[in-house]
Amino acid sequence: MSHILGIKFRDHGQVYYFESGPFVVALGDDVLVQTEQGLGMGHVVAVRDDLPEDAHEGELKPIFRLPTDEDRDTKRENDQLGREAHGWCRKCIETRHLDMKLVDVEVLHDRSKIVFYFTAPGRVDFRELVKDLVKAYHTRIELRQIGVRHETQMLGAIGNCGQICCCRRFMRKFAPVTIKMAKEQNLFLNPTKISGICGRLLCCLSFEQENYEQFQKKCPRVGKKFSTALGMVKVLRTNLFRETISVLDEAGDEHELTVEEWTQALENRPAPVEPGSEAAEAAKAETPR
Questions:
Q1: What region holds the PSP1 C-terminal domain (predicted)?
Q2: What is the CATH number of the domain that holds 259?
Q3: Number of compact structural domains in the chain
């Protein structure tokens, strides 16, 4: 029976899904797969019977084959070559005074290409650097500029929470994160508190955003006044974890209501007095001049 395999080509890379085909593959095995860049060796990190949510059946391709001892030796040699290329490339960057930072080096399994990942504040003219690398390694060279988030994902770091960054541990793709999320989650807008190691907004702000959006749909707008069974009240704040709404009445007293109690307070509010009605005339007569 064919299974769906989640495969990583690098420790910090995304998980790609393939079919096991006629091969018997277990979790933790190495496999060879045919990619757009060429033949590559990946590590099986997941074995599933069903499709993941973000994959489509027509996109899945079978693995090429299981690796041999020679393939594993080639993998070790490529890893060593990548470390050597990393040191050589850094020397070339310093010699040519290029405003760029080398992050990582990837050598394809068949050595048909070597990819150098780097960050830079702007565009870099690295044509001479490419010539130096081609002359040294006699293969195709690709210099790929990445962002600071991908840099943190590749290198790894310890976040403010004391754990390894989410992007390094399990994130496959970066979701958009905005300052609006921090505001809706009632966080202090201190850049040092809501920013990650990469200097961008924390990725984890997007993890609970859906819960906050669903909770806010059931809550009134903060700062607005409402007529309720308690009289006219002003909404002070909302609390997702307690699922409560804090309001201030006309007497200056603060009340904390659950979402259900708030709904009941709105439903049981007194009916508005229409002008010209008996109730309006009675209220007018009782009003001191």
A1: 61-146
A2: 2.30.30
A3: 4
